[in-house]
Structure formats: structure tokens, C-alpha cells
Amino acid sequence: MLVVDDDPALLKVLGALLTQAGLTPHPASSAKDALALLARQPIDVVVSDVRMPGMSGLELLTEVGRGWPDVPVLLMTAHGTVPLAVEAMRAGAADFVLKPFDREELLFTLRKALLRAKEETPRSAGKLPDGLFVGAGRAMSEVKALLAKAALGTATVLLRGESGTGKELAARAVHEGSPRRAGPFVKLHCAALPDTLLESELFGYEKGAFTGAATRKPGRVELAHGGTLFLDEIGDVSQAVQVKLLRVLQEREFERLGGTQTVKVDVRFVAATHQPLEDLVRRGTFREDLFYRLNVVPLWLPSLRERPEDIEPLSRHFLDVHAKTNGRPPFTLSADGLAALQAQPWPGNVRQLQNFLERLVVLSDGPTLTGADVARELSRQPGLAPPPVAAPSPTADSGTLESRRKDVEKDALVDALKRAGDNRTLAARLLGISRRTLYNKLEEHGLL
């Protein structure tokens, strides 16, 4: 541990505390001495005061980030104001501790920073984190390839697709695979907040901007400086907020609520919606200019119906996760249990499948989940029908699960093409899939 403070008494106290905890402290009375020590001594974590004569803790944080980017820096100060904390976190501080600090709290924060530093391995931009997406079918492979390409740039990404397809996961993948991955990933669910609250959450407010605004509060746009801001359900934003969002997207600047000072930010935007924004534009409820600003890199996430081959790996993954989180022994899935899951349409997509499997883990005796277990829970859940009890005849190919799925899929493709007047771009939109996926499906079913 490198401990930096201009107060000799505090250095002595911190040194004793860290030694008792089994850590090795290296004291420095100034930022200049700290940088010299870093140059000659391997350091795992830097703990520095913010207000020091000469170079401040924030300036030291910047220098450490340039020369030793893998070393986390914790800042401590007795002047714990919100703007200072925001500035520290935006500058890359691992955490922020207020004086007088609690011994256990400080040690916990230090160990958390150490653990995070050990777990984080260098990763080149454009490579998605391992294990982020489960499933290796054609549809998901295509999505992962497009996300990796999108991550390399700085253009705004618009994630499209049905609810429950993993748009927030995709947004995080864009951030984690980008050169901005060291910066913050800030998210905001636009549909969950009324207009007045949404505006203050986005842009922040000044002290006295309204009744109850006792201090200045930074907004999500400001907190995402140097990183990525994910705006979920962008289609539900009112036109008044749309105007302000358009300015931020175009100019990368805004004013806090009740303020006059223009704040400039460096933020990458990722937005998501399950709504047909083109229809909202035609109806006049969504600004056309904002749509084009958001729709720079559009990515469609496939529904679970389009990736039935991924139901098996997803199911086994969620069973493992939920068994651990609920303190249950490992669960296995029988062949008829898997077939019962694959027979369902899952209109809520991956999210619905995940929630259903957690319910199975909690309510089943285990350790093997059968078709009867699946049917029992399906019968208790509105909107999902239990699978037929009789098993299909192995000689009757027309009655197999796979043949039925293909028939339904082919009918959906034919219907979409008919409704779109054989316009394949429009047909892909109606089906909620990419054009490439549409062409692959048309070729598979002999419809090209």
C-alpha cells in the first residue's frame, strides 16, 4: 500500500492500521514523493489525501493513471462534498473515503480495490468479455460479431428488439469491449420516471432549482463523462426531454436544471427500445431528427424464438446460477424436461426463461428436473401452456418438435413477406430480426 498524506500523524496511524491488517504500508508525505516511490517500488493500491500542498490528490490520480493504469487509487478527504466526489470518480478513482474514517470500512474498501485489480485482466478493445452471452447459435454469433465491431468506435448505438432479449447486456458489452471500458458505465431506465424527474436525473440540478434541492446534484450524463451512458426504453421519452437529449447528442453540452453554466461532456450514448421508432416518428410522437441521431449504428437482438438452439445452454446456465444463489444443490435437466422448455414460445424471451427456471429451482425437489416438473410450473403460470403429455412418434417426422418449429417459422416468414409487399428490409423489421438473419432463414426454408 502506498499511503500519501502531508500529515505525519495520520501517516503513522494509517501505517499501524495497515500493518495490523497484514498489509505493507509505504508512506509518502507528498505526491512528488509518491510518484518517485512508484517508480522504484511495486505497489498494489495507492491511498491518498485529496488536499495537499503542491500537487493535489486529484493531480496525483491523473499521474498514476498515465504511468501505472493498473494500480487503483483511493482518495480520502475531510472535505467530502458531492462535486469533489463526482470529480474524483470521473477522474478514475477506485473509491472515495471520508475522514474521519472507520477502520473496518477503510480496510473493506482497500480489499475490495485489491480484489478488483486482481480480477481485471487486460483486454484489447473490440473483444467482448468472456461469458457475457450464453449461446453459440448462428443468430447470437452474428450479434456478438456486430457488437464487437460497434464497440471499437464512438458512434451512438441503437439496440432494437423485443423485451427480455438482453439489450442492457448488449449495451454493457459495447462499453466493456470499447476503449472507454476504464470509464463509467451509467444506465437510466427512461420509462420508469416521470418527465420532471427524468430531466433532473439526466442533467442534474443546481441548489435551489426547486423545493427540496438543498445541494447541487450531477445528472447521469455528467456522471458518464469519459464512459458510456445507456438510455433504456428511449421510445418512452417525452418530446420536451427529446429536445434536450438531441442537443446533448449533437453538441455534447447541456445546462443543469436551474443553472446557467454550460457543462461539456465526453460521453458515448447507447440507447435501446422495443418500440417501432419509425412508427412513432410517423405518428409525430418521436422527433425524426433525434431518431436519426440515435440510429447511427442500429443492432437488432434476436428473440428466443429465433435462437431455439440456445435454449439448452441458457437453461443449464441459469440452473447453475440459481442453484448457487438460492443455496440449492446442482440441478440437472432431463431430456423430456429440455424438450418441454423448447416447446414453449417464451414471449418474454431470455428474461422470462430465466425467471421460470429460478422458480423451478426454488419449488422443485431436485436434483433432476423432468418434463413433469416443467409442466407443473407451466400450468401455474398464465400465458404458458403445458406441453402435450403424449410423446411424438419417432416415425412420424411431421409431428416432431423440430419439424413443427420449422413449419411455424416458415409460415411467419411467408406472412411477413406478404405484409411487407415482398420488401425484405421491412419484413425483417416486422419480424424483429436483422436482414442477414432474414436471408439465412429464407435460404433455410427454400424461400429465396
UniProtKB/TrEMBL annotation:
Q: Which residues form the Response regulatory domain?
A: 1-114
Tell me where in this chain the PTM 4-aspartylphosphate is found.
D49
Molecular function terms, GO-annotated:
ATP binding; sequence-specific DNA binding
Organism in which the protein naturally occurs: Corallococcus llansteffanensis
Q: Name all Sigma-54 factor interaction domain ranges.
A: 133-362
Q: Which PROSITE patterns did the record assign? A: RESPONSE_REGULATORY, SIGMA54_INTERACT_2, SIGMA54_INTERACT_3, SIGMA54_INTERACT_4
Keyword annotations for this protein, in alphabetical order, are:
ATP-binding, DNA-binding, Nucleotide-binding, Phosphoprotein, Transcription, Transcription regulation, Two-component regulatory system
UniProt-annotated stretches for the region Disordered? 380-407
* Full protein name: Sigma-54-dependent Fis family transcriptional regulator
The superkingdom listed in its UniProt entry is Bacteria
- GO BP annotations listed: phosphorelay signal transduction system; regulation of DNA-templated transcription
